[in-house]
Every structure is written in structure tokens, then in C-alpha cells.
Hints:
Mean pLDDT: 93
Distance between the termini: 12 Å
Strand content: under 5%
Oligomer: single chain
Low-confidence stretches: none
Number of strands: 0
Radius of gyration: 15 Å
Largest sheet: none
Number of helices: 2
Helix content: over 70%
Amino acid sequence: MIRNDRELEATLERIRYFQQQVERLRQVEANPQNYRLSAGGFLAEIDRMNLEVREFLWLHPSEVKEQAA
């Protein structure tokens, strides 16, 4: 769960990194089945993190309880 703007930025950075990994896989993996097997984990994690980002952004700043990490 994202608790503050710093964690939001870290999550967005991680999403970008995972997207880049999938882009690289698309370029180097010749076998479609192997590609899907390799990319599936990254894509599932991207989906999970995007949901966390959406949930955090849905809240107004006054509704977010900021906690020390």
C-alpha cells in the first residue's frame, strides 16, 4: 500500500523499470510462448502496482495517513 508521495514516486519508477524489462524481452525473445511465460510475471506485477497507484491517487491528501517508512 502506498502511504505517501515518496512511495508513490518509487512505485511509479518500479512500474517504468518493469515496463522496460518487458520491452527488452519483446526484442530478444524469439519464441512467443517463452516470451509470454517470461513477461507474465512482470505484467502481473505492473497491474498490481498500477492498482495501488490508482487507490492512492483516489484519496484526497487529507485522507492519507502518512506513516514513517
